[in-house]
Predict the structure.
Amino acid sequence: MKKITLLTLLLSLTTIIFAQAPIANFTWADGCIGDLLSFTDNSTNSPTTWAWDFGDGTTSNLQNPSHVYTAAGSYFVTLVVSNTFGSDSINNAVNIYEVLASHEITDVYCGGLCDGSVNLSPSGGNLPYVYNWTPGGMTTQNVINLCAGTYSYTVTDMNGCIYNGNATISEPSPIVVSLTPNNVSCFGANDGSINSTPTGGTPPYIYQWDDPLLQTTANANSLTPGSYSLTTTDANGCASTDNASISEPLPNGTIAGEINYQGSPINSGSVELIRKDGSTPADLTLIDSYTITTGGTFNFPNVEAGLYIIKAYGDTNLYNSAPTYSDGGLGTIQWNLAMEWDITSNCSNDSQSVYISLIEIPTLSGSGSINGQLVESGGGVFNKAPGDPIGDIDITVEQSPGGAIMGATTTDTAGYFYFDNLPEGAYVVYADMHGYSMNISGTIDINSTNSDFDINLCSDDTTFTVGMCDNPTSIEENITNSGIEIYPNPAKEILNITTPQKEIFNLTISDVTGKIILNQKLNTQNNQIEVTTFVSGIYFVRVFNETHNIFQKLIIE
């Protein structure tokens, strides 16, 4: 009884196992040439051995091998799996893709340009393609405006297959032109030349210079000083533009000499070198000035060929003299009477020696005065509008007849000039405006009745003359007729100025140099001006408005 029960229990606990052969299966992913493809065994029934055939002549016994295909195509991969109960196999087609590309190159046409291009022709793989270029980062199939050099590119299809390529852009050697200038032999000459030596490019060359003759030879001749440009073009139409300059030495003329006063060289003064190309203001040009500090000598080197006049000034603090032009004799105050000094050539070291004796001005003790203003009457040459004052012009006063120089001064910025201490007599006034002739319309007669005169000088741009605008008038007559009173004269503390009622006047008080010491409006009829701060001496009072213009010499004690 016990034996039967035990047997029944053992049978109920026993599981019956039926052994089976494996069933082959695997997974993979298609890829590209050169990719490492992974094969995964998915076989069932516990195979113990694996035999792979990749279809390209290679095999593996690994359960999950990897493989690289070196050629595109479809490969039948076979997997055979086995165990002690049997074996099984499976075949699957694996697709290997390849992207290919060819390119067409257009080289740079002219050396140094960037007009090269590359056109790609991709094939294989699966569209669309993606492009990438280095250097430059371009992403198009075709690229343009390339400089010479090597460019790498990749073509990638939708499967991620990549083609790598290189394209090299070449260029012809650039045109290089060496220019050798030959400077002119002397100042102002036209015997300069430039020689050109081209290399590179594709001969023959065509030449084009930009000189006035538009020369078309390799070397340009008969050139004056200046900058020149040469364009050299080769047989392909490639061009190079190069520049060179022709220089010149300084002119080698010299004008030198000595300035004297009362027979002795001056130790302080100046000399002006004025080029004279004609007889109008535009034809006279101040070229240079020289400051004399000792010995009276001056020297103008490097003077260009041409005609010149020389004007000398003595220091008026040391020498009582007038500005003097050289005339080969005692000197003159008029530019049109000055002697012309000729430098005939820029290449012959021409020189001229000039000696000038300054015209002396006598010490005066008379009681007369001549005051005035120089204004523009036409406008133009001096860039002045009609009525504008002209400053910094040398003015001289001469006795008439006889021509003795009695005074010299310079117009101030307002065009005014002043002469005092003139003795009784007849006088003419000259304004030294280069290129203008002095048109004297009358004389000024200083006498016991009328000793102080006011004149106006006008320049005329059409006739290039300067002269009196109208007849000179006595300051005494002007003051009497104007109703203006200026007193006392001499003054010490207070200067009284009485003007007509209901009129506004301007007042200026200037010293003998033309410097304005006081400038104010007179808004009332009776005006008192404090002059205690003025240094004792001679001054000039001007009271004026639109209808009156009164000058009077004033003595401050």
In short: Residues 265 and 296 are 4 Å apart (CA to CA). The helical segments are 2-13, 475-482. The domain at 485-556 is CATH 2.60.40.3080 (Immunoglobulin-like).
